[in-house]
Amino acid sequence: MEDQAEWEQRRATVSAEVHGWRLDKALAHLVPEFSRSYLQQLLEQGAITLNGALNVKAAHKVGIGDVLLVQMRPTEQSQAFRPETMALDIVYEDAHILVVNKPVGLVVHPAAGHWSGTLLNGLLGRDAVAAQLPRAGIVHRLDKNTSGLMVVARTRMAMDALTRAIAAREVGRKYLALAWGRWEPGATRCIEAAIGRDPRNRLRMAVVDLALHAGKSARTDVQALASDGRTTLLRCTLHTGRTHQIRVHLAFIGHPLVSDGLYGGASAGGLERQALHAYSLALVHPATGEGMAWQSPLPQDMSDALDHWGMHYNEA
User: How far apart, in whole angstroms, are the C-alpha atoms of residue 123 and residue 141?
Assistant: First the structure.
């Protein structure tokens, strides 16, 4: 842990100019070299006192003569891009790319609430080269509770080439999903519907009308592999890579994923996360031009759920 004695202390006295201001606004004025969001984080960490008192609310109105003491701590966000030792399931690796099998629960990139313990931190921890690349070479993402294969670049050339290939829809990504409702085994469906932020719930994505809301075109091809009449095992092929694309598209057509509470899928079969696994990845190697493909076996929780419903998945 960093020595607290090395943390800089800032002292400021509230002047008549800022008398009656909210504490967070007054701080931003009195310590202008730091962002308001950074000062807000310090306030939440208890690193700021008002007349010696801790746990002061951001909305508290300051008065002339009040004394603010600010302890300039590093925030979680400022330390997010740090290497961490982490066991990663590496499926393939060479000088240009690596393919990782991401487990359920692993966040891919630091964000609010997950400033450490992410795949990015693990990549930085295993390979010093990763620090030289934007996002440690990450070119696409999986949701925290979606498992499966991801390709990561190890050189800038590979990163640029993979980014172009994904944008040109030249990287093959297939998923296995357990969805509610019956499909006739072998039945297929192409879902083409634009996706954007849900205008009624900003925490979700939704199918949107591009004439009315911001969004991007999206296409998912779906094939039913097995069904017990209540649930169906689906193979989903992405042609675009929108946030929550498979989850949104299947919910849109009335077949939400099992245990996907965010999009209306009831929990069942012992699954504690949305039943989605990125099982197949295919691409042209950015350096050699060789066509390459990998598959990841169905994780245990989804395999157990199939057994629960008496369905069978043939990996071949």
Answer: 14
Alpha helices in 46-201 (DSSP H): 119-126, 156-167
The single-letter code of the amino acid at 146 is: T
Closest CA relative to residue 263, chosen from 243, 283, 279:
243
Contact status, residue 66 vs residue 118, Cβ threshold 8 Å: no
Among 79-93, 146-160, 177-191, 252-266, the least confident range = 79-93
Take residue 267 and report the two structure tokens written for it. 């929990």
Q: What percent of the chain has pLDDT over 90?
A: 72
Active-site residue, 143 included? yes
DSSP string, 232-295: EEEEEEESS--TTHHHHHHHHTT-PBTT-GGGT----TT--S--EEEEEEEEE-TTT--EEEEE
- The token pair at 178 is 């357990």
CA angle 248, 144, 41 (to 5 degrees): 110
The string of DSSP codes covering 154-214 is: SSHHHHHHHHHHHHTT-SEEEEEEEEES---TT-EEEEE--EEE-TT-TTSEEE--TTTS-
Q: How confident is the model at residue 1 (pLDDT cuts 50, 70, 90)?
A: very low
**Residue 239: pLDDT over 90:** yes
State how far the Cα of 166 lies from the Cα of 133, in Å rounded to an integer. Answer: 18
Q: Residue 201: CB partners within 8 Å, gap ≥ 6?
A: none
Residue whose pair of structure tokens reads 């240009």 in the numeric block: 96
- The residue behind tokens 């297939």 is 174
Take residue 280 and report the two structure tokens written for it.
């197949």
Rounded to an integer, what is the distance from CA 44 to the centroid of its chain? 24
The pair of structure tokens assigned to 79 is 């330390």
* Local structure of 28: helix, strand or coil: helix
Q: Which of 24, 127, 143, 260 is catalytic?
A: 143
What is the tens place of the pLDDT at every residue in 240-264? 999 999 999 999 999 999 999 999 9
CA distance linking residue 137 with residue 82, whole number of Å: 14
The Cα 184–Cα 212 span in angstroms is 35
